[in-house]
Design a protein that fits this description.
By secondary structure, this protein is mainly β. It contains no helices and 7 strands. The chain has a 4-stranded antiparallel sheet, with no helix packed on it.
């Protein structure tokens, strides 16, 4: 999940993983283009929080995609300026 949502210009994405593993966290626009990669590598087990600063991006709806070794999830983010 991310909080706050809607946000301007920073939101925090929080997720939990059960064991140390490779994690990818990226932001996409509504056309499916990756606009920012927030995390790509080995992550420790537990709760992780990652800030997304959207300064320089246009207002609108974005999607973050969290991918681990056995899980993929996507959620909408709303950037209001």
């Amino acid at each position: 999940q991310n909080y706050p949502n809607p946000f301007n210009p920073v939101t925090t994405i929080r997720f939990e993983i059960p064991y140390s593993q490779n994690v990818e966290l990226a932001i996409y626009d509504m056309l499916g283009r990756e606009v920012k990669r927030l995390y790509d590598g080995e992550a420790p087990a537990g709760v992780l929080t990652i800030d997304f600063n959207a300064q320089g991006l246009a207002s609108g709806v974005y999607v973050y995609r969290l991918k681990t070794e056995n899980f993929i999830d996507s959620k909408k983010l709303i950037l209001l300026k």
